[in-house]
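User: structure tokens for TBC1 domain family member 13, please.
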Amino acid sequence: MNMKGFSCILYRRSSDKDLCSCRNVHVIQEFKAALSEQKIDLKALRELCFSGIPCEGGIRALCWKILLNYLPLDQALWEVFLKKQRDLYDQFLREMIIQPGIAKANLGVSRDVTLEDHPLNPNPDSQWNTYFKDNEVLLQIDKDVRRLYPDMAFFQRPTDFPCQLILDPQNEYETLRRRVEQTTLKAQTVNRNRSGVTNVSSPGKALHLYPSNEYEVLPNGCEAHWEVVERILFIYAKLNPGIAYVQGMNEIVGPIYYTFATDPNSQWKEHAEADTFFCFTNLMSENRDNFIKSLDDSQCGITFKMESVFSKLKEKDTELYMKLQEQNIKPQYFTFRWLTLLLSQEFLLPDVIRIWDSLFSDQDRFEFLIPVCCAMLTLIRDQLLAGDFTTNMRLLQDYPISDVHAILIKAKELQDSL
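Assistant: Done. Predicted tokens:
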């Protein structure tokens, strides 16, 4: 795959108003031609996408759905497939959010509560024990998604397509928003000291975990984009109890949702939530081993991948490798975050999305991440060779280069060189 002709001028600012910087009409026409084929040529599409995907006309969002193995290559199947998947997601919402919410609401009006459905039922398999465990996961998700890209207004803004299943004004059941509000209030306003005396905090202190600018919610009938992301992650955690939710997953789902929710085509944009859920699920099926602690030291775990970055560095730049070894700078000190979160915390969102164009289009997407990380090291080699331990750790934990174009070119050179 040729790296010449990277077609995007990369944004280096945090504004979320205009991620679209590709104005090359010829490139756009190439993409439109590739996407107009009845049966998509995946190899040809990958080669196009690797050098950067234009976002005019929702091209990037559509390409990502194909590259993440969500949409079939045969466009004749899309209509039926999409309806099936979106109906399935609605079913997940009913089973995992709506029905438990109805059960909770009914408890307050029913006088005939049996031990089996009582909240104090000690049985670990009871529905209420599950409900309370789910709340623990939900609170962690809620805490993380509120902080998603804090320098951008997007995730705090209302979505144009709030979930009507959840926000129907006729519904009286408990939504995720209410669960978080009620659980947070109970957890923070009542606490028992070591002598067994119960203290009730003042309302002002009760919400100290959520400053006012983070905790504000939109009026009934509206929901912010971060609430949609929260719902996606909660459903994923429920459907994947073996991994559930691990901090950092919010950083993986955020750029996917942003890309789909800003699609100029409203027919796609309307279903950004369901489409994001399935694309995120597909991506996690390839990346989930990084989030499973018991697999850390296996060949598919994160430790092996971190060591692979240093192995590649040793092969390509022995002097720099030896310098890091002498200073006892281990790969886990910085590459854990780089690899696990697909560099989503190292760059601004426009640049993350550009990197992901190349990652998603590479057939061995997570193999390509290794030379990308190695390229990041070699591009600051002079600073690292001159720096002491403290200076170098600061460089690696707050990466100084914002030109992802140069990083990707270098990564491709490292990947292709013998």
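User: Anything notable?

Assistant: The first strand starts at residue 190 and ends at 192.
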